[in-house]
């Protein structure tokens, strides 16, 4: 089974070819244009997708060493995401499937982030059902009970900002360029996580809230900079380590609660923020500390990619869960 995966939900145009669950190629064109605006500009994103999609798919096929006529099916991101961006991938996938007379597979982007754990890799072990997935990305923060490939139940989610936003907005306060998450991670590695204690947001049950944290970081920084204009510059490592430590603390508290509530001790993390070195390390430590079995994705499958779309498509293909030509992009879809 050869599946072509196409991802265009936000600002990355990506294509991947999967052979029987194994990756043959995984190509991502990241749009740099948004950096100078400090966030993704939807109109620019869809225009860049239109420019990138053909070359990116060509590159994925050529690196995989197959021709388009060998493909078994086309998988694409139907949503959630930016409408204009989703439309480019959706229309392209539909036309290609029509032209090649092969099935079309619609994929939920958030399910795909989780299913990235099922890509065949020698040194990577896959989770067994049921497991808990913590999806932490630029637009989502969810705890998901995963019973089967497409049986997923959200048991906790953010009431306001996503974790990725919390990282990016904190970074912005510190004057770091967008997206600031990876930079906070980089500085945090050299800082003291207990240097500046920030209050952990209090939310009942398994839900999250990150907007209050962002505000308290803003007020703290403003106050310090007033007293010492070089405060950020002199303390960037400690500030980043403290912010990251607080965020990880929140995530771990909720995970512990979710484990207690469900009795499930297998935890997988997914989404862009699962690239964070602090989160990866904390989760690995939880294996001995709490006797959990934890799964962290390979780096290239954390942020948006098409390999995860292709693997989701692979499982849909096996169960013959095809999309019809009437399928439309959806900016918001439930798990
Ligand atoms: P969604 O998947 O919810 O639609 P998205 O696709 O925009 O959102 P992803 O590409 O999955 O999000 O993740 C991007 C986010 O991950 C950004 O907010 C980015 O700052 C964050 N991120 C990436 N690497 C790291 C890191 N090492 N530490 C912290 N955050 C990171
Ligand atoms: Fe994503």
UniProtKB/TrEMBL annotation:
* Co-factor: note: Binds 1 Fe(2+) ion per subunit.
Q: Name one GO biological process term.
A: tRNA threonylcarbamoyladenosine modification
Keywords for this entry? Acyltransferase, Cytoplasm, Iron, Metal-binding, Transferase, tRNA processing
- Which positions in this protein are listed as binding substrate? 135-139, 168, 181, 185, 276
**Which reaction does this enzyme catalyse, per its entry?**
L-threonylcarbamoyladenylate + adenosine(37) in tRNA = N(6)-L-threonylcarbamoyladenosine(37) in tRNA + AMP + H(+)
Instruction: Please name the InterPro entries in this protein's record.
Output: ATPase_NBD, Gcp-like_dom, KAE1/TsaD, Peptidase_M22_CS, TsaD
Which cofactors does the annotated protein need, by name? Fe(2+)
Residue positions annotated to bind Fe cation are 109, 113, 304
Enzyme's top EC category: transferase
Which GO-annotated molecular functions does the record name?
A: iron ion binding; tRNA N(6)-L-threonylcarbamoyladenine synthase activity
Instruction: State its location(s).
Output: Cytoplasm
Q: What is its EC number?
A: 2.3.1.234
A Pfam family annotated for this UniProt entry: TsaD
Domain Gcp-like residues, every copy: 23-310
What Gene Ontology terms describe where this protein resides (cellular component)? cytoplasm
Record's function text: Required for the formation of a threonylcarbamoyl group on adenosine at position 37 (t(6)A37) in tRNAs that read codons beginning with adenine. Is involved in the transfer of the threonylcarbamoyl moiety of threonylcarbamoyl-AMP (TC-AMP) to the N6 group of A37, together with TsaE and TsaB. TsaD likely plays a direct catalytic role in this reaction.
What is the protein name for this chain?
tRNA N6-adenosine threonylcarbamoyltransferase
Organism equals Salinimicrobium sediminis
The taxonomy runs: Bacteria, Pseudomonadati, Bacteroidota, Flavobacteriia, Flavobacteriales
């Amino acid at each position: 089974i050869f599946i072509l995966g196409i991802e265009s939900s936000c600002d990355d145009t990506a294509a991947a070819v999967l052979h029987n669950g194994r990756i043959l190629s995984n190509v991502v064109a990241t749009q740099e244009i948004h950096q100078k605006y400090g966030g993704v500009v939807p109109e620019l994103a869809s225009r860049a997708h239109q420019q990138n999609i053909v070359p990116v798919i060509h590159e994925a096929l050529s690196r995989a060493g197959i021709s388009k006529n060998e493909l078994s099916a086309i998988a694409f991101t139907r949503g959630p995401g930016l409408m204009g961006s989703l439309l480019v991938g959706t229309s392209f996938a539909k036309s290609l499937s029509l032209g090649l007379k092969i099935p079309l597979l619609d994929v939920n982007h958030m399910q795909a982030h989780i299913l990235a754990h099922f890509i065949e890799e020698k040194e990577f072990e896959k989770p067994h059902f049921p497991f808990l997935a913590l999806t932490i990305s630029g637009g989502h923060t969810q705890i998901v009970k995963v019973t089967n490939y497409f049986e997923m139940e959200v048991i906790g989610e953010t009431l306001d900002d996503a974790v990725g936003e919390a990282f990016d907005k904190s970074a912005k306060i510190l004057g770091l360029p967008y997206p600031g998450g990876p930079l906070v991670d980089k500085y945090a590695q050299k800082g003291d996580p207990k240097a500046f204690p920030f209050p952990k947001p209090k939310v009942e049950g398994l839900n999250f809230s990150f907007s209050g944290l962002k505000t308290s970081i803003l007020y703290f920084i403003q106050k310090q900079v007033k007293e010492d204009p070089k405060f950020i510059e002199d303390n960037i490592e400690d500030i980043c380590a403290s912010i990251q430590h607080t965020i990880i603390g929140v995530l771990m508290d909720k995970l512990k609660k979710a484990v207690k509530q469900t009795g499930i001790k297998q935890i997988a993390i997914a989404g862009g923020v699962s690239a964070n070195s602090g989160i990866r390390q904390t989760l690995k430590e939880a294996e001995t500390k709490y006797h959990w079995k934890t799964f962290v994705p390979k780096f290239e499958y954390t942020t948006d990619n098409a390999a995860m779309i292709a693997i989701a498509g692979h499982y849909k293909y096996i169960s013959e869960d095809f999309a019809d030509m009437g399928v439309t992009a959806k900016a918001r879809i439930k798990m």
